[in-house]
Amino acid sequence: MLNVLKMSGTFPSQPVDERYATGKLVRRLCALAWQFRADCLWSQGLSVLMRLQ
Prior knowledge:
Layout (H helix, E strand, L loop, with lengths): L1 H5 L15 H14 L1 H16 L1
């Protein structure tokens, strides 16, 4: 039980050479955000309309 508590909670699921670099992750997150931009704008517009009523 104590060994489990002392161990780090994260275990690398992939070898070090297969992990993504920080820059690549940022680019992938930006691409994902860009993909859902229309839904975000639609949601913001609906929120404004509901607030005005």
